[in-house]
Amino acid sequence: MSEVQVAAEILGRSRAILLDFDGPVCGVFSGITDMTVSDVLREEIRRLGFEVPAAVEPQNDPLEVLRFAATLGDPTVTAVDDRFRLAEIEAVALAAPTPYAIEFVRAAVAASKKIAIVSNNSAEAVEAYLERHQIRSAIGPIVGRAHARPDLMKPHPWSVLSALDRLGEPAEAAVLVGDSRTDMEVSVATGVWGIGFANKEGKSEVLRRAGAAAIASGPRGMALLVEAVSWIH
């Protein structure tokens, strides 16, 4: 079967769709870069009186800088996460929508699917983006990063299990659409279907190895999922 056929089969048997945010919905750091936000978090760590190790200094993923802050305990990790949330809200105001993401959400709603967001970004940032683009009402629960608990970020199952509980659906009736290895790992760990969004060169194989049952590849990958949903009406 083609990828769109496999995706249509998975989406057809799923009552709930769990969407990762950064990637499948928008490019969170497409307006304000991830390195800029990482620098903000490193500055906060120094302000609190700690040195930033050489291994963390060049890190461009703010989630990894937050993980380091967690090793410093409270109140440091709380203060860094608070600063991170403010930076994320600034970033999503400039974030570019992923092509066909909004169309996918609307098509899924038309197909009577329940939708939730499961993200390592903060729920406040996700909420701000969805409101800005007038699609908040189409989406149910938003399960973002647990405050000051980066240990609960994906691939930990906390966000997926929380979303399933709030949707009132079992794992076998849900699919997770994500663009990272950890998204597919958590789908395998929790028993939900995994559809990988391979929006960059080389991602397809990484996502497949991590457990993706179908791949939507390329910058127009979400358009494939819009097509797949149209097949299940």
Automatic annotation (TrEMBL):
Superkingdom, natural source: Bacteria
GO molecular function: hydrolase activity
Top-rank EC class of the record's enzyme: hydrolase
Enzyme Commission number: 3.-.-.-
Keywords: Hydrolase
Gene3D superfamilies reported for this sequence: HAD superfamily/HAD-like, Putative phosphatase, domain 2
InterPro entries for the chain: HAD-like_hydrolase_sf, HAD-like_sf, HAD_2, HAD_sf, PGP-like_dom2
Protein name: HAD family hydrolase
Native organism: Catellatospora aurea
